[in-house]
C-alpha cells in the first residue's frame, strides 16, 4: 500500500484535504490547512509499510480532518527535498528534519558562537538536499570587522550567499527581502543563542518567537525553540524554525561535500595519480596549490576530516539498517507459524 503520492497524479476521496505538516511532537502531527491547525495521527498504512518515511515538518499530506477529534493522515505527497543529518543520540541513524525548503538560513552570531567548521558542515548538508544555503552572520554591531568573517564564509563554497546583519538595530535586514517572496519556504538553522528567534521577530515586525538570554561566559543561549515548527507569514512566506544545534554530524553527504569543496575536487582531478593522498606523491596539484597560497592546509584538513566522518557514519547507518531489516524479516517469518 503506497503511502507516497505524486503531486501531479493525486486523487482524493471524499472529505480528504491536502495540508502541510506544521509541527511534530512524538506521535502527534499538526497539519496546517487554510490557516487552521489540525492535530492528527498517522493511518495504519504508514506502520504496515516498511519502506514508508513518516512525515516531517514541511511535508504535504493527504488527510481527513476531524472536526471534534484527531484528524487522520492517509498519505504523504512526493517531496522536493529532505534535510537530514545523523542522529547524534543514535549512532548511524539518520534524523530527518524538514522537507520542501527553498532556502536554509544558517544563522551564526559574530561572537564566540562563530565556527567556520560548523558553518561548512551546515553548507554541505544543505547542498546535499538540493536547497540553497544562505549564511546569516548576526550581531554584526558587536563585531569590529564583520567583513573579514563574511569573506571567510564566502570561501567555503562557490556561490554561497552571506549577509552580515544586526536584527536588534535593523542593519542589513533589507538584504533579505529577495528571499521573502510569496510561496517560498525558508528553514532557520543554527546554535542556541545565535539569534534565530530575534531575526524571525525582526522580519515579521512582531514578537512571534520568545528570545532567550545569552550567557556571557561562553556566548551560548537557551533553547528558545524546542521543536521544529512551520510559521506562515502574511506575505505568503513559510518559515520553519528549528531547535539550536551545536553539533552537526555528516553521513551520506558525498554530493554536498563535493559541491562545498569543489576547488579541492578540481585540483584532485589534476593530480598525476588518481589515488593521490596529497602527501609525498609527485605531481600533486593539491600540494602545489598550497605552496602557491591558493589553498590553505586548514581547508584541506577540514575536507579530509568531514569526508572521513561522512564515510564512517554512512557505514554505521548501512550496518544498522541491515540489522533492522533482518530483525523485521525474522519477526514476520515467525508470525506465519
Task: Write a structural description.
With 337 residues, the chain is an alpha/beta fold. The protein folds into three domains: 4-77, OB fold (Dihydrolipoamide Acetyltransferase, E2P); 82-241, P-loop containing nucleotide triphosphate hydrolases (Rossmann fold); 254-335, Orthogonal Bundle (Ribonucleotide Reductase Protein R1, domain 1). 29% of the residues lie in helices and 23% in strands. The chain is built from eight helices and 14 strands. A hairpin with a 7-residue loop joins strand 7 (82-86) and strand 8. The protein is flat, with a radius of gyration of 22 Å. It starts with a strand and ends with a helix.
Share in helix: 25-40%
Shape: flat
Q: Kindly report the oligomeric state of this protein.
A: single chain
Average of the residue pLDDT scores: 79
Order of helices and strands: EEEEHEEEEEHEHEEHEEHHHH
Q: Calculate the terminal CA-CA distance, rounded to whole Å.
A: 24 Å
In the CATH classification, which architecture of the largest domain applies? 3-Layer(aba) Sandwich
Number of domains: 3
Given as residue ranges, the uncertain stretches (5+ residues, pLDDT < 50) are: 212-225
Short account of what is shown:
The chain is an alpha/beta fold and about 325 residues long.
Which helices and strands occur, and which strands form pairs?
Layout: E1 4-5, E2 17-25, E3 28-33, E4 36-42, H1 44-48, E5 60-64, E6 71-77, E7 82-86, E8 94-99, E9 103-109, H2 116-128, E10 132-138, H3 146-154, E11 161-164, E12 185-190, H4 196-204, E13 229-232, E14 238-241, H5 254-260, H6 262-269, H7 285-291, H8 297-335
Parallel strand pairs: 1-6, 4-6, 9-10, 9-12, 10-11, 12-14
Antiparallel strand pairs: 2-3, 2-5, 3-4, 5-6, 7-8, 13-14
Helix pairs in contact: 2-5, 5-6
Amino acid at each position: 500500500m503506497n503511502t507516497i503520492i505524486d503531486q501531479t497524479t493525486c486523487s482524493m476521496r471524499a472529505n480528504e484535504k491536502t495540508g502541510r505538516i506544521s509541527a511534530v511532537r512524538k506521535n502527534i502531527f499538526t497539519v496546517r490547512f487554510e490557516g487552521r491547525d489540525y492535530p492528527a495521527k498517522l493511518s495504519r498504512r504508514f506502520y504496515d509499510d516498511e519502506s514508508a518515511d513518516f512525515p516531517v515538518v514541511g511535508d504535504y499530506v493527504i488527510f481527513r480532518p476531524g472536526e471534534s477529534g484527531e484528524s487522520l493522515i492517509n498519505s504523504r505527497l512526493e517531496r522536493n527535498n529532505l534535510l537530514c543529518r545523523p542522529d547524534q543520540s543514535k549512532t548511524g541513524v539518520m534524523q530527518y528534519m524538514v522537507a520542501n525548503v527553498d532556502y536554509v538560513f544558517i544563522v551564526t552570531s559574530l561572537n564566540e558562537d562563530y565556527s567556520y567548521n560548523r558553518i561548512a558542515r551546515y553548507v554541505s548538508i544543505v547542498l546535499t538536499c538540493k536547497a540553497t544555503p544562505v549564511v546569516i552572520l548576526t550581531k554584526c554591531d558587536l563585531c569590529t570587522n564583520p567583513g573579514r568573517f563574511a569573506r571567510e564564509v564566502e570561501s567555503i563554497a562557490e556561490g554561497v550567499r552571506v549577509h552580515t546583519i544586526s536584527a536588534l538595530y535593523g542593519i542589513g535586514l533589507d538584504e533579505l527581502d529577495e528571499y521573502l517572496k510569496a510561496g517560498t519556504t525558508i528553514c532557520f538553522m543554527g546554535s542556541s543563542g545565535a539569534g534565530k528567534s530575534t531575526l524571525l521577530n525582526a522580519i515579521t515586525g512582531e514578537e512571534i518567537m520568545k528570545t532567550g538570554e545569552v550567557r556571557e561566559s561562553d556566548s551560548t543561549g537557551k533553547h528558545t525553540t524546542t521543536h521544529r515548527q512551520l510559521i506562515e507569514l502574511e506575505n505568503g512566506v513559510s518559515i520553519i524554525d528549528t531547535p539550536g544545534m551545536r553539533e552537526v554530524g555528516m553521513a551520506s553527504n558525498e554530493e554536498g561535500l563535493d559541491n562545498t569543496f569543489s576547488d579541492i575536487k578540481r585540483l584532485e582531478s589534476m593530480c598525476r595519480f588518481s589515488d593521490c593522498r596529497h602527501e609525498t606523491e609527485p605531481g600533486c596539484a593539491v600540494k602545489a596549490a598550497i605552496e602557491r597560497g591558493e589553498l590553505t592546509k586548514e581547508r584541506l584538513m577540514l575536507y579530509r576530516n568531514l569526508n572521513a566522518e561522512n564515510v564512517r557514519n554512512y557505514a554505521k547507518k548501512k550496518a544498522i539498517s541491515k540489522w533492522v531489516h533482518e530483525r523485521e524479516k525474522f519477526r514476520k517469518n515467525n508470525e506465519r507459524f
